[in-house]
């Protein structure tokens, strides 16, 4: 019944406001979204074919978030800003370790799952940036498993020295994230002397 009423409105561009006795002419555009295959739903009889073709004038297919990881960072920043304002919290950054974890997370719940993760993290976070500790265990896992995902498949020659440097840099940055930027604690966490830790920070231009 609702589908037939919507079809009539689209076709005639006429609506009758609630409580009114007459119809009025309208001028509108409809932007509709769905996570179902409407072509299949029309074949099953769950969705009117005439309404489907009326709505399907310009079809834009948006791949799931797991297939467009390049969008994750901007979306995460958007949701961080949104919930930081809503919860009146001074959080303006997302840690390097969390951003790296986003690259391998499957996001089975698509954009809504990312939004829920950020909302939860903002609520839990006590610093001015989102750290791994504010995310559930199933998202971040442990550091060893996380870095295991970065190992190449060796189907072609690799620059091992560069790979080792990248991993070392990531561990240093992650240690700094976990300790709130405290170099002494970060060095201890990585089993390095303060002198060696500072040398490596300068080597990788980490500020």
Automatic annotation (TrEMBL):
This is Sigma-54-dependent Fis family transcriptional regulator. Keywords: ATP-binding, Nucleotide-binding, Transcription, Transcription regulation. GO terms for biological process: regulation of DNA-templated transcription. GO terms for molecular function: ATP binding; sequence-specific DNA binding. Residues 1-123 form the Sigma-54 factor interaction domain. Gene3D superfamilies: 1.10.8.60, Homeodomain-like, P-loop containing nucleotide triphosphate hydrolases. Coiled coil: none annotated.
């Amino acid at each position: 019944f609702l589908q037939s009423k919507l079809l009539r409105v689209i076709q005639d561009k006429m609506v009758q406001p609630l409580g009114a006795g007459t119809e009025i002419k309208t001028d509108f555009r409809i932007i509709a979204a769905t996570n179902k295959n409407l072509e299949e739903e029309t074949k099953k009889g769950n969705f009117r074919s005439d309404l489907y073709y009326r709505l399907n004038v310009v079809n834009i297919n948006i791949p799931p978030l797991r297939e467009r990881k390049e969008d994750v960072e901007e979306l995460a920043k958007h949701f961080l800003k949104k919930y930081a304002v809503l919860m009146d919290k001074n959080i303006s950054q997302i840690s390097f370790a969390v951003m790296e974890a986003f690259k391998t997370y499957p996001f089975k719940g698509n954009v809504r799952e990312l939004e829920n993760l950020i909302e939860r993290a903002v609520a839990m976070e006590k610093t001015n940036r989102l750290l791994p500790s504010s995310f559930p265990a199933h998202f971040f896992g442990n550091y060893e498993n996380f870095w295991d995902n970065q190992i190449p498949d060796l189907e072609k020659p690799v620059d091992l020295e560069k790979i080792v440097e990248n991993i070392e840099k990531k561990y240093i940055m992650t240690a700094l994230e976990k300790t709130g930027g405290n170099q002494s604690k970060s060095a201890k966490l990585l089993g390095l002397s303060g002198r060696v830790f500072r040398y490596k920070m300068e080597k990788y231009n980490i500020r």
